[in-house]
Amino acid sequence: MKILCICGMGLGSSLIAKMNIDDILREMGVRATVETCDVGSVNSERADIYVTTRELAANMPKEHLEKTVILTNFFKKDEIRRAMEQVVAQYKK
Amino acid sequence: MNDLLNFIIFQLLDKAPVFLAIVAFVGLWLQKKTWGEIVDGVIKTVIGLLIIIIGAGTLLGSLGPIMTVLNSSLGVKGVVPANEAAFAIAMATPLTNNITMTFLAGFIIHLFMVMSLPWKIFKNVYLTAHMMLFLATFLNLTLPVVLGLGGTPLIVVSSILCALYWTLTPGITRVLGKSFLGDDLTLGHHQQAGAFLASRIGLWVGNKEQDAEEMELPRALAIFRDNTISMTILMSIIFLGIGLAVGQPAIAKLSMKDNWIIWLVLRGFQFTAGIVVLLSGVRMFIASIVPAFKGISDKLIPGAVPALDSPAIYPYSPVGAMLGFISSVVAAILVMILLMVISSPIIVFPSPIIMFFDGCAIGVFGNKFGGWKGAVAAGFVSSFLAHLGCVFLYPLMGPVYGSGLMFSNIDFTLIWLPVLYLLKWVAPLLGLI
Q1: Which end of chain B offers a freer environment for a tag, N or C, measured as fewer CB atoms within 10 Å?
Q2: Strand order of the sheet with strand B405-406?
Q3: Chain B residues with CB inside 8 Å of A72's CB?
């Protein structure tokens, strides 16, 4: 499973998100590669799940919307954990 | 023995890619990564650095000739403040190792300071590696100019100044943001003094009951969130503007057979392509560093709050952020016109970073303290000061001076401009220059 974290430049908050998601998935025992990307390049990146913030949701390509998880922010671990549990359950179906 | 030492110093440590590979290796090894991950991280760090240098070449290729024409035909120096571009230019000079050493030593001193300060508001760890590299670069460029420093003293002074800034300023935004950010994060994006200014302006001109979030802004504005798109539009307009100012004959000498207008617009695209390239390099470069920094700080200072880059705070007031951005654009254009009218020798063009990243962050703080009026006023004042400050900071940029690029954030003007001019004033008294 490949997860892509998206922020404006793909440098700052998406990297924090990547580290948090890595930690959470490890605790959950799920194997996945988590990468970062800027909103401008998201069209050319393939992933199973896209994670971004409310702020950039409007900029996400329409065809990825079903696979997009929208968080309030990238560092509240509880929120990320809830979202990841849902996503992983759905992905396994 | 001497030969071996010489080999280590001049062939290994002095070659930036080799030095960085060693740094990345140690960082990954300390994180107890597997061998596969270590090889991956080390190679990507070095490739990242090389990509940054390639991006710098593209930027200079697009900007250089036009800035030269502007200088030779109108006698003015033009500058576009853009952090990552200025950083790339500096990384292509022999300063690379100095910058890396300052960045690493600065972070270690910063951790030590955070551990030893007793006050809770300073228990923050700066985790925006790209911004940290930019400040390390900025000081390594400017301190030789104002203090005449070089070699080890330059690294020592730069890293102490970096550490002081990284330790003290996130405390400002931690206090300011407590009511809406909680105690979960603070800002670490060279805007912390700017945020303080925004809060005062907000309190002064506005009323926080008139929350910007109750307003509706046109959805089309969302397109400017995409850095690639807003940078291309902005840079094409700047190149066109310069082209019109110097006239067709001067540009035709550069564009050769191509139509001069189309050639100018394409320079804007080329510039952005350079930025996209170098950002992918920066991403590879810091991907293994940030987790290492976070791992170390989690162990040493458990419970410390991360100081993050400004997009982390936009969700707390997206409309306020947009208002700050819009009024920043207005101020940027005004400063450019003002500088032309008073025939300043340095013309500062609108900076994508100041308008977007500063504008949005300042807009959030403006709105939280003074509603929509606060967001608009704070964005305007902050962008005005940040652009104007570049006139005085640009000549201090050492090897980057004249490239048409420089660093860009409100705190460079609010904090580093007075500090550098103070140092410049005391340097002769200390016998340094």
Answers
A1: N
A2: B346-348, B77-81, B405-406
A3: 315
Distance of CA B27 to the CA centre of its chain: 24
The answer for A31, left when phi > 0, alpha when psi is -120 to 50, beta otherwise, is: beta
Print the domain residue range for A54: 2-92
Cβ distance B226 to A11 less than 8 Å, yes or no, reads: no
CATH number, domain with residue A68: 3.40.50.2300
- Cα separation, B104 vs B296, in Å, equals 12
Strands B186-187 and B305-308: parallel
| DSSP secondary structure code for residue B350 in this structure | P
- What H or E segment, with its residue span, contains residue B98? helix B96-116
> How do residues A69-87 score in pLDDT, each as one tens digit?
888 878 788 888 998 888 8
Residue A75: list chain B partners with CB under 8 A.
Answer: 184-185, 306, 308, 312
**C-alpha span between B233 and B240 (Å, rounded):** 11
Question: Which chain A residues touch B314 with a CB distance below 8 Å?
Answer: 53, 55
Predicted complex ipTM:
0.81
Element (H or E) spanning B180, and its range? helix B151-181
Whether residues B306 and A16 touch (CB distance < 8 A) is answered with yes
B230 by DSSP, 3-state: which? Answer: helix
pLDDT tens digits along A16-33: 889 889 889 988 888 888
**Max CA distance (Å), chain B:** 72
Structure tokens at B430: 């200390």
Phi (first) and psi of residue B125, to 5 degrees: -115, 125
Q: What percent of chain B has pLDDT over 90?
A: 59
**Helix pair angle (B260-287, B289-300), 10° resolution:** 40
- Copy the structure tokens of residue B16: 């930036």
Q: B143: closest CA among B96, B80, B98?
A: B98
Neighbours of B322 (CB within 10 A): 24
Q: For residue B304, what are the contacts with CB-CB under 8 A and spacing of at least 6?
A: B114, B123, B124, B125, B297
pTM for the model: 0.89
* Cβ–Cβ under 8 Å, residues B328 and B362: yes
Distance CA B309, CA B135 (A): 14
Q: Do the Cβ atoms of B312 and A16 come within 8 Å?
A: yes
Beta bridge mates, A6 = A37
Give the integer Cα–Cα distance in Å for A71 and A57: 9
Per-residue burial over B402-429, b if 16 or more Cβ lie within 10 Å, else e, is: bbbbbbbbbbbbbbbbeebeebeeebee
| Secondary element (H or E) of residue B51 | helix B35-74
Q: Are B314 and A56 in contact (CB under 8 A)?
A: no
Domain definitions of chain B by residue range: 2-426
